[in-house]
Design a protein that fits this description.
This protein is of the alpha/beta class. A seven-stranded mixed β-sheet has the order 8-7-6-9-10-11-14, with helices on both faces. The radius of gyration is 24 Å and the shape is globular. The chain starts with a helix and ends in a 12-residue tail after the last helix.
Length: 550
């Protein structure tokens, strides 16, 4: 809080208003002199506490909560009352708080969003605002927004269409920008683009907060999103649009529509692909193999699968393959079976990975035929990697790479315990959620979490700091390499493919430095290049500390 802001409250006699301002308040940490100067005397208990003592109270209160959903609710209420204290607590122990604030708990919170709702956060742009979205966006009080995270709620984690309940995702994603990468929160804006929902349960729920109508046809949706994207360019000209959890077809087509026109990215496509490639860099280092020699089978061919495939193709091309050769090494299997030449239900993006083969809905048979070195699950079908499937992977590979990425936890295609047991400890495994260590045959393995939070906050930090004109696939490949490089040989020996979560802030800042360097190298930055990127970037980081009032 600045001295000027404190003085303005004093002049207006607004001590209570100051205490209730989440971005400004110090709560019980105001000194006696500050309390006298700001008209706060008598409004708070007499004890003067520092932020660490306040954090002790938060941790004690969290410990009394019965489950992570209650802890999620408590933490978001804390963010609504004292933002500095919220980030101070969360950033001190990210490994503990990540699964509470985000995956998997945020999924359960989204299911109940209308029932848990307490106060508005971010913005809700709906079909009712067509023709005046620019005017509505102008209602946001901060004018230098650098990143908008926007969702339609069309495909939330593995939970499907949650409509306006999906607002928990942009809120949570942007909290991780700050908690994991120290991006100043004033630069960030969560938005729910409310286009209705196909979820009949929500439409019948009297506490549902969104539009009570079905989603529009593609043409109407395109016009609505075009207006939104154009309005962002006018109201927030330095802003990058982070698309999150859109329906698979919408995710792919809107990224293609805007990627070369405005600063934007799709986390489900580029972020997911980047973190998976980062894990594969380490898995292949353990195996002493190259990307160009791999064969990949995806179980799931939606936006996440296509995004992963897109990034893996780029990694293979960097390793010497042509575009066509790289795509030829990627196979896909979806709800209707293998993507092969007789299929007539495939999108143009899916057609890129079609192979001549007889129709098949038998995953085991496809694994035995293709003999993939890498099996990636993005299906949201829990336990779909059965023991025979995993054993077939082990027969074909000395060290099979198995990524079971669907979430929440019960959606994972297999658990790490299953992967290690069924391969006799040979699997190189990662999941989309964090599982505890697994001991098999006397050895302890550390299953990694191939979660986008290793990548998108770092990209966000680089985007915010450089004010980049565009976001490119090269930046995500760079992020993947930077993430992978921070895993030690000793950690890889335990099967760990990603940095430890307790070190996530340092990992993000290093990764952001690598991405920012690419932005400067490509002439995409709208700020002057510093002499040394790393100390420049570190000097910009948000620190959750109270600023003394003078």
């Amino acid at each position: 809080m600045s001295a000027e802001s404190g003085s303005s409250y004093q002049k207006n006699g607004g001590g209570v208003e100051l205490l209730n301002a989440p971005k400004l308040t110090h709560g019980t940490a105001y000194t006696l002199a500050e309390r006298a100067a700001l008209g706060l005397e008598g409004l708070i208990p007499p004890s003067v506490e520092n932020i660490e003592r306040q954090a002790d109270r938060v941790r004690q209160q969290l410990g009394s909560k019965p489950d992570d959903l209650e802890r999620y609710i408590y933490l978001n209420q804390l963010a609504d009352t004292n933002e500095t204290l919220f980030y101070h607590v969360v950033m001190a122990d990210p490994a503990y708080f990540l699964p509470i604030l985000y995956d998997p708990t945020v999924g359960y919170a989204c299911l109940k969003f209308g029932h848990l709702y307490r106060r508005p956060r971010g913005m809700y742009i709906s079909l009712q605002h067509k023709g005046r979205i620019r005017q509505v966006l102008s209602n946001w009080p901060v004018k230098d927004v650098r990143v908008i995270c926007v969702s339609t709620g069309g495909r939330i984690l593995g939970l499907g269409d949650l409509g306006a309940n999906g607002m928990g995702i942009p809120i949570g994603k942007l909290q991780l920008y700050t908690a994991c990468a120290a991006v100043p929160q004033d630069a960030l804006l969560p938005i729910l683009l409310d286009c209705g929902t196909e979820n009949q349960g929500l439409l019948a729920d009297p506490l549902y907060l969104g539009l009570r109508q079905r989603r529009p046809a593609d043409d109407e949706m395109t016009g609505f999103v075009d207006e939104f994207v154009e309005a962002v360019q006018n109201v927030f000209p330095s802003c990058c649009i982070h698309f999150e959890d859109w329906r698979g077809t919408d995710a792919v087509r809107f990224l293609a529509r805007y990627q070369n026109q405005v600063s934007c990215f799709n986390d489900d496509i580029q972020g997911t692909g980047s973190v998976v490639v980062g894990g594969l860099f380490n898995a292949l280092q353990i195996k002493k193999e190259r990307f160009r020699d791999q064969t990949v089978l995806f179980f799931g061919a939606g936006s996440a699968g296509l995004g992963n495939a897109r990034m893996i193709v780029e990694a293979m091309k960097l390793d010497g393959l042509s575009n066509e050769e790289a795509r030829g090494r990627i196979w896909m299997f979806d709800i209707n079976g293998l993507l092969e030449t007789s299929r007539t239900d495939l999108s143009p993006e899916q057609q890129l990975y079609v192979h001549p083969h007889a129709p098949s809905k038998d995953l085991l048979a496809v694994v035995e035929f293709v003999k993939p070195t890498i099996l990636i699950g993005v299906s949201t079908v829990g336990q779909s990697f059965t023991q025979p499937v995993i054993e077939a992977m082990a027969r074909a590979n000395d060290r099979p790479i198995i990524f079971a990425l669907s979430n929440p936890t019960e959606k994972a295609e297999c658990t790490p315990d299953q992967a290690y047991r069924w391969t006799r400890g040979k699997a190189l495994y990662a999941a989309g959620v964090q599982f505890p260590p697994v001991t098999y045959n006397g050895k302890t393995f550390l299953p990694g979490q191939a979660n986008n939070f290793y990548v998108y906050p770092a990209v966000g930090l680089a985007v915010w700091a450089t004010n980049t004109r565009r976001v490119t696939d090269e930046m995500f490949i760079t992020a993947a390499r930077a993430v992978a490089s921070q895993v030690t040989d000793e950690q890889r020996g335990l099967g760990l493919l990603f940095p430890l979560q307790k070190d996530v802030l340092e990992a993000e800042v290093r990764t952001a430095g690598a991405v920012a360097t690419v932005i400067f190298d490509r002439g995409l930055a709208r700020v002057e290049r510093p002499r040394d990127v790393d100390p420049w970037l570190r000097g910009l980081l948000y620190r959750p500390e109270y600023v003394p009032v003078r």
